[in-house]
Amino acid sequence: MLYPQFLQDTLDALFNIMMETSEKDTYDTLVFDALVFIITLIGDIKFQHFNPVLETYISKHFSATLAYMKLTKVLNYYVGHAEEPTLSERLYAALKTLKYLFRFIVQSRVLSFRFPGNSEDPDAFFNSIRMLFLSFNTLMDRPLDEGVKIKGAILKYLPSIINDIQTVFDPVELSVLLAKFIESIPDLQFVRQKLGCMCKIVESDLFTQPDCRDVLLPLVNDQLSGQLDDHSSKPDYEACIQLLSTVLDTLDRKDV
Questions:
Q1: How far is Cα 144 from Cα 12, in angstroms, rounded to an integer?
Q2: For position 71, what pLDDT does the model report?
């Protein structure tokens, strides 16, 4: 039985293991998998009362300044080796917890700013995010035995990290990375999921920023035009209308 009062102690113990072995990666994968398991457990309807406890822990009690590099490294490895059956299942579980994984990653990155003596290369974090998107693009463009489930999960959960990550990563570059991600998806594949993913991108904080919108709006136009002009297959009109409606609703806001 898991009790809220023990959640902080459990998470502290996990991240202490990671921080105490910061020079090695011996336990990084084990800690990553344990963290995914805990987040997945909290996502269960029976444990929804843990969500506020987890949010409070991340914002007020979490203190692992180097966790962002280790968490992104393991995630990058899983995405890059998604064709391996055992890693495929681990990756799928991690994707379902991507929102909270990146809450930890971003908070760790924020904390690291407060310690000038941090020995990490300042560009290492940005490169790890670029590498992650590149791995996603490669994965979306190649066939895998478990590809359907993994690709669908990426499209579903990737937008959940946008608002957090844009606080520590250049928003315009993030918009470019998202545009390249959408463009990496082969035509006529995952049409509804892709348009749904774009809806969530439009609903994010990025689309309210003019420089980011200069990148994202042409992408939306191209994707909608491509869908509606394609006479070789029946367009998903419902998904197209939903995306167009989301764009127009956002553009109609007074703060945009």
A1: 37
A2: 95
The burial of 104, by beta-carbon neighbours within 10 Å (0-12 exposed, 13-18 middle, 19 or more buried), is given as buried
Q: What is the DSSP string of 5-51?
A: HHHHHHHHHHHHHHHHTTT--TTHHHHHHHHHHHHHHHHSGGGGGGH
What are the Cα distances from residue 203, in Å, to 51, 95, 198, 253? Answer: 23, 20, 9, 12
What is the per-residue pLDDT for 79? 94
Backbone φ and ψ of 75, nearest 5°? -60, -45
Report the C-alpha dihedral over residues 136, 180, 225, 202, rounded to 10 degrees.
80
> pLDDT band for position 19 (50/70/90)?
confident
- Residue bearing tokens 């844009």: 166
Q: 232 pLDDT band (50/70/90 cuts)?
A: low
